[in-house]
Amino acid sequence: MNAVFHPQKEFSTHFLGCQVVPQRDKTLLRAAEELRYQVYCEECRFLRPEECPDGRESDEHDVNSAHFAALSLQQELAGYVRLVHPDAIQTFPFQNHCVALLEGVILPPAAQSAEISRLMVRKDYRRRHGERPPSGVSTDEAESARAHELRNPSPEILLSLYRQMYAYSLRNGIRYWYAAMERSLARILARMNFGFQQIGPATDYYGPVAPYVADLRVFEYQLSQRNPALLAWMRSSCVLC
């Protein structure tokens, strides 16, 4: 994990986000797959452990994804997420499970979109009830306490991962993010100024979740009005592993 650490004073003082390039970062990618196994197979039982006999979780979407990690000051893997690009028929993983859409919803162009997937934080780095978010980022502790543990990451880790996804999206012409998530997480993200719009009813897709979409241009405008310092940090140069 050859990362050079440059923490930001206000928004991420304990973690560095970076892109994981499979051909280059083999050790870090392996650690991410092991974390995916721990969370999805052992903790949450979304997948059967026997489907991953080597203790690493991966799937057919990995080759069509950009991978991101959050590292601690000690260079430990603390969190992981991926952005899945559309497949050959211009669809995304969530569409295999969330088949219904709300009335009037029109999906944005697939070529300008990606799906946030496998968002997770290592167990010992998850935020405890009562922990304060980074300066300048608001949240609701009562609601966050009700959120599923898997989807209740440390605010700094979440910001580090989202910053990397945002930088990657700007470089690659991605304007829209899909995400299948619990309503509680969507509300937490909204309070952290990451607004997603629900586009379909809840269904069982690794737990009870609903599909959401975010327009990054809308996100940028809203953030410029509500928290311009956070937007400037999101837009600043990102240090890659």
Report how far apart the termini are.
Answer: 7 Å
Residues in β-strands, percent: 15-25%
Helical amount: 25-40%
- Assign an overall shape: globular
Largest sheet entry: 8 strands, mixed
Task: Tell me the radius of gyration.
Answer: 17 Å
How many domains would you count in the coordinates? 1
Q: Which architecture name does CATH use? A: 3-Layer(aba) Sandwich
Task: Outline the secondary-structure elements.
Elements: E1 15-20, H1 26-43, E2 65-72, E3 77-84, E4 113-121, H2 141-146, H3 155-171, E5 176-181, H4 183-191, E6 197-198, E7 203-204, E8 208-215, H5 216-226, H6 228-235
Parallel strand pairs: 4-5
Antiparallel strand pairs: 1-2, 2-3, 3-4, 5-8, 6-8, 7-8
Report on the architecture of this protein.
This protein has 241 residues and is α+β, with helices and mostly antiparallel strands. It has one domain: Gcn5-related N-acetyltransferase (GNAT) (Aminopeptidase), CATH 3.40.630. Helix content is 29%, strand content 20%. The protein contains 6 helices and 8 strands. Strands 1, 2, 3, 4, 5, 6, 7 and 8 form an 8-stranded mixed sheet that branches. Strand 2 (65-72) and strand 3 form a beta hairpin. Helix 5 (216-226) crosses helix 6 (228-235). The protein starts with 14 loop residues before the first strand and ends in a 6-residue tail after the last helix. The model is unreliable at 2-9 and 128-152 (pLDDT under 50).
Short descriptors:
241 residues, 8 strands, eight-stranded mixed sheet, 6 helices, alpha+beta, single chain, Aminopeptidase, globular
Give a short synopsis of this structure.
α5 crosses α6.
